[in-house]
Amino acid sequence: MPSKEQVLRLLSQGHDYGDIAERLGIPAGRAYLIATGVPADGSDSVARGKPGREGLLTSRSQHLVNPREVNPVTRRDVHAWIRRRAWMDRPMREAARG
Amino acid sequence: MNERVWPVLRQLTGKDRLGKGAAVRSAATAALRARTAGADRVVKSVCPYCAVGCAQNVYVKDEKVVHIEGDPDSPISRGRLCPKGAATLQLTTDSRRARKALYRPPHAADWQEIDLDTAMDMVADRIIATRRATWEAEHEGKRTNRTMGIASLGGATLDNEENYLIKKLLTALGVIQIENQARVCHSSTVVGLGTSFGRGGATTFMQDLVHSDCVVIQGSNFAEAHPVGFQWVMEAKARGAVVIHVDPRFTRTSALADLHVPIRAGSDVAFLGGIINHVLSNELYFRDYVLHYTNAATILREDYRDAEDLDGLFSGFDPDTRTYVTDSWEYEGMPVVTATGTSEEAARGVGGRVPEGWSEMHGAAGATLTGTAQRDETLRHPRCVLQVLARHFARYTPEMVERVCGVPQDLFAEVCRHLTENSGPDRTSEFVYAVGWTQHSDGSQFIRAASILQLLLGNIGRPGGGIQALRGHASIQGSSDIPTLFNLLPGYIPMPHAHEHQTLADFLRSDAPHQGFWADMPAYLVSLLKAWWGPSARPDNDFRFDWLPRMTGSHSTYDTVLAQLDGTCKGYILLGENPAVGSANTRMQRLGMAKLDWLVVRDLNLIESATWWKDGPEIETGELVTEDIGTEVFFLPAATHTEKSGSFTNTNRLLQWHHRAVDPEGDARSDLWFMYHLGRIIREKLAGSADPVDAPILDLTWDYPVEGEQGEPVAEAVLAEINGWDAEGRPLSRYTQLKGDGSTVCGCWIYCGVYADGVNQAARRKPADEQDWIASEWAWAWPANRRVLYNRASARPDGHPWSERKKLVWWDEAAGHWAGFDEPDFERDKPPGYRPPEGASGTAALSGTDPFIMQPDGKGWLFAPAGVVDGPLPTHYEPQDSPVVNPLYGHQRNPARKVYEHPDNRYHPSGHEPGASVYPYVVTTYRLTEHFTAGGMSRGTPYLAELQPEMFCEVSPELAAERGLVHGGWATIITARNAIEARVMVTDRMPSLHLDGRVVHQIGLPFHFGPNGLARGDAANELSSISLDPNSHIQEVKALSADIRPGRRPRGPALREMVAAYRERAGIVAGTGTEV
Amino acid sequence: MDLETALPGARDEEAGYAERPARMGFFTDTSVCIGCKACEVACKEWNAVPDDLTAFTGMSYDNTVGLGADSWRHVAFIEQRKPLGHQTPGVGDMDFRWLMASDVCKHCTHAACLDVCPTGSLFRTEYGTVVVQQDICNGCGYCVPACPFGVIGKRESDGLAAKCTLCYDRLQVGQEPACAKTCPTDSIQFGELDELRERAERRLERLRESGVSSARLYGHDPDDGVGGTGAFFLLLDEPEVYGLPPDPVVTTRDLPSMWRHAGAAAAALLVGLAAVAWKGRRR
């Protein structure tokens, strides 16, 4: 079972949590928890409580735990659909011209 | 340490000699993997319960949702969820969830399964047939082009895109009676806040609570109803803020407050009025703020008469119509013109009534004043608003507060002290409220009172200040904005009223000089009409403005119930709402449904509103017999939020997108799917029709893209239409781009910008850790992503912040525009020193010191010359049913309230009236953390049901002794409407109050329960009556009177007999309680 | 073998791990609990703990009643006619307060359940927590009476023991235990035990300064009868008020001395028998 000292040592050697996970054969999120004492998916109140905590990621640590994240913000088919709607509205285009 | 090695061997050869740790780990333990990390994907979503809008991570494996928990990136929730949010997995995946479409033929004893497509076809046929049979081209000589035969109800937990299609389709079909939970929940908010400040929504956002020095929670049980939002109160408390909870009960909120003030349910106007009086008489108001930013200095007309002069009435009351003619309330020399051109005179000419929904329109939109205000900058003129205010509230003394509210004077003084000490340039106080204020027959005035107080204290528009209206459902703000309400079009544009010659120009009064942002009303309305009727909407046909059905009065959900009872309304569609538990007078709701030809219910479970014909309370009493009920019922299972994409608008006007994680199973479909395909099928059936009545539905733009096996409409396309685009098909970014010439499309002008640049701004998820406390890149708020409204008021008239400690936005002289932490709620480059030239109109008429930009005079309204139909100033009236005499005025109840005289809706004698003592106790209804509204999303969910498994009532030890109630036993509670039973909780938390020389006992009733589900009980709303606030048409369920007796209630006909016996004892007849 | 070190009470925290992370646990600050029960639900949801629908208990808002195999978090509600610091309850003239607290398995330093488990199902993890391995448990139930807090129980459905695991599977991927993550007011705090103990001391001091003299810590003291707990609390009244034992002792505490006494008795018996036998031989 990896210890805090082990993980912090690897961090200080410049490895990121992904590397450390591979080396130690544990999930990246667990390495994070062991190193910092803060869960990778916790809210910020704990982390903010103690400044200068080694190994802390300022943001997006939940990616160390989660699988692929789904949150699309654009859809090209919708853009095309809008353009078609506008194109089919002749009075609208006339009004824009006039 | 290898878990495959025999444990004993490991114990003997390893370090774990005692065999308590490493040696005994099994292979399974070693292989343990959290199903979150092992899932295929995590989809970003939002909790479907309340309006805090906690972000959720939805984990999917093998196309099944395997886990749901909070998203720590959210600036609002920080990864936390309340018990309901934490139960979302069970809500969405429980095997008991309804997944089959069901059909009940007329007079049938039970359901039968039905093929979904067949059901859709039948529903479309019903709608077409009923519409044809009940079509009304004219009403009393005026064109209405509508059907009063069909109504819909719901839904505040539906997506904005769903509500948009509901409103669009049904309106095009000529349906006027479109309503949702917003009517019965926070409609008073739109009026109260809108009239006072210009927009009818919360003025701030929850995270801003950390900046507050004093938080007053009143008419809200924040910790129980919005637990995750409550963390921000705790943050404020940790920073030294004083937390005060004013509530009839000592609740879980009170347990964390510094000060709890028990108050008689329904007496908040007197309480707030007392504080206003204290502030005015002791000159503790924030003078500079009041002078410059409110209408305190404006002079009123000479013929204005106050409640002081007329013993509780204002000038202009017509006892025959029970309405006010409000001319005398206007500013001197500034007659009111509505932004939609229906002047008071014109309106009065048509039936003598102010058009229904006028208040809400005013509340949201603001009226137009013509002329120039006369002001007294010394605030001494006897007819200036401040002096009128002082005279009006002079009788709300601490003694009076004690008499009316039951609040001891020392406690009252404490509240006054905390509020006044924590307001001013360096300190701010915030009010938080919910339905404890809105759900009264004068609910709009409760909110008006708080608005006045906050304006006097100078707290509006400032960090840690403002008024936080806590709305209750995931997207009830959205279902008010979009809206599925009878009297409004998207963006709070009023539905047109039937008048002669009502052309678009008449409606818009484009010839009248308008001030402020409502001058752009034509742009907003025309863009909406273009969104709906596309190429068919042209300048030469008024952009099809004629095709909108017309109102002729009130068509609220309660009017619909009466219309069902009298046979006018024949078809009803329920979309995620449960009126058989959640609306006032639930018995009447069911009796109304029993008269329908057909009923469509869409929900996650078989709610009471779907099964009343089979096993509802009236079947038990024998009033209804299943075989005699001819209502045809369709039950169509609904998809949950994990099974559809769309946006919710939370209580802080924030639109947050949730993505579909998996497809719904069985027959479950989203309401987007339902509305879209219903519309498609109806249009197919009507295709080729030459009847002009069918043109609005055939020419409706209805070609949304669909995807997947189920043909689910693409919600982003609907969002894009709501946002709007220009003639090139480019999504718009700001509502200032909208035009009234037909060259822009926009489904809801206040949402314009949510799809700016073709990016779904509502889906933005920049973590809170990467932003400041405003977090403006998380999702999108209206208007224009502003978080604290009216924030111009956080700076002095000269543009500097009132103080360093409370700075928010300020004028940057060097840069020549407003700057700060938040998006300025003001024209960016209008300097503080700008003064409008003579005759200016539109936004040019607003000066550099007018923070309330949606108000016609740019000022916060202490006195409301327009927009509130039952009084320009809040006045204490007793609730409809009250055992207490109004000590303040001769008028017991709100003279302008709406009453519905009906044998099933009898009111109680009150105060001194004979028979009042038959119902001697005050009842208040409320929520529990563990359940959600009318229970459809919690009573059937085992993890929630087990937390609060049965209906109970809360009574004080004194009341228990008086009536012989036993803790843990049963009690029956009776009103003139119905009687229910409940388990008894005798507790100190429901104190009896000493006021006016007597003891008033109060009974507390959670309102979630109903006969269905796992956690069962009688519904509290069996007891309530329909008596409405005249502005918002909201019912009074927060304060009524009742009797209570030990023991269970009678079953069968004996129940009705008991209710009747009580009525007789109280001498209740048709007109009881309906007096002005 | 040295009896002192070979028997329960010794070296539990090491439990045979050559290297291990810091000890993790819970600090439950009941002074900020709003009694919402999100912890109960989140725990059940994550761990698929069966629901347990009962009737209205009338025990204030507590319908869960206590910890057991089917309730691994339990929120207690106590209505008292006592003041709470400078809070003004406003309920007539009397003092009043409503205490709310979320109870959980203590993950004791000296864990009796662990001591008595004959199969090795219960074990000490590398985080110092105590976890039931359901694939090993044989349902003997010895652990149930052993727990001084009445936490662990046997499930009716399958007869196996069940209790809070401090979300061991979540820790293994670096996730916060479900109850701590969901708690709206951060009443349940998760982290390294040393750090939590420091935080708790500071919080206690602040609370006492603000006038809440009845505030105290429970389970934080390594010298108490269970060696201190991995899940400890800030309470606002006596433990008994919350249904907690005031002076919990690991029920196997006396085992070493019992064995010694037994050993001494056995030795004495042997000596006695030998003496009798020797005496008998003379004849």
Brief overview:
The complex is a heterotrimer of chains A (98), B (1076) and C (283). Chain A has helices spanning 4-12, 17-24, 28-36, 44-49, 76-87, 90-97, and one strand at residues 68-70. Chain A has 98 residues and is mainly alpha-helical.
Radius of gyration of chain C: 22 Å
User: Which structural class best describes the helix and strand composition of chain A?
Assistant: mainly alpha
What CATH first level of the largest domain in chain C would be assigned? Alpha Beta
Distance between the termini of chain A: 75 Å
Q: Detail the poorly predicted runs of chain C.
A: 1-12
Based on secondary structure, the structural category of chain C is alpha+beta
Number of helices of chain C: 8
> What is the end-to-end distance of chain C?
40 Å
Q: Output the helix-strand order of chain A.
A: HHHHEHH
**Could you spell the SSE succession of chain C in H and E letters?**
HEHEEHEEHEEHHEHEEH
Query: What level of helicity do the residues of chain A show?
Result: 40-55%
Describe this structure in words.
- The complex is a heterotrimer of chains A (about 100), B (about 1100) and C (about 280).
- Chain A is mainly alpha-helical.
- Chain A has a domain at about 5-65.
- Chain A contains six helices and one strand, in the order ααααβαα.
- Chain A has helices at about 5-10, 15-25, 30-35, 45-50, 75-85, 90-95, and one strand spanning about 70.
- Among the domains of chain B are: about 1-30, no CATH class; about 900-1065, Barwin-like endoglucanases (Beta Barrel).
- Helix content of chain B is about 25%, strand content about 15%.
- Chain B is built from 34 helices and 41 strands.
- In chain B, strands 4, 5, 6, 7, 8, 20, 21 and 22 form an eight-stranded mixed β-sheet that branches. In chain B, strands 34-36-35-41-33-39 form a six-stranded mixed β-sheet. In chain B, strands 11-10-9-16-17 form a five-stranded parallel β-sheet.
- In chain B, strand 1 and strand 2 (about 55-60) form a beta hairpin.
- In chain B, helix 6 (about 160-170) runs parallel beside helix 29 (about 670-685) and helix 6 packs across helix 31.
- With about 280 residues, chain C is an alpha+beta fold.
- Chain C is about 25% helix and about 15% strand.
- Chain C has eight helices and ten strands.
- The longest helix of chain C is centred in the C-terminal third of the chain and has 28 residues, at about 255-280.
- The radius of gyration of chain C is 22 Å and the shape is globular.
- Classes of the chains: A mainly alpha (about 100), B alpha/beta (about 1100), C alpha+beta (about 280).
- The interface between B and C is large, with 83 and 72 residues.
- Strand 1 (about 70) of chain A pairs parallel with strand 1 (about 40-45) of chain B, so a sheet runs across the interface.
- Chain B: Its main location: other.
- Chain B: It is found in: Cell envelope.
- Chain B: GO terms for molecular function: 4 iron, 4 sulfur cluster binding; electron transfer activity; molybdenum ion binding; molybdopterin cofactor binding; oxidoreductase activity.
- Chain B: Its cofactor is [4Fe-4S] cluster.
- Chain B: InterPro entries: Asp_de-COase-like_dom_sf, Formate_DH_Act, MoPterin_dinucl-bd_dom, Mopterin_OxRdtase, Mopterin_OxRdtase_4Fe-4S_dom.
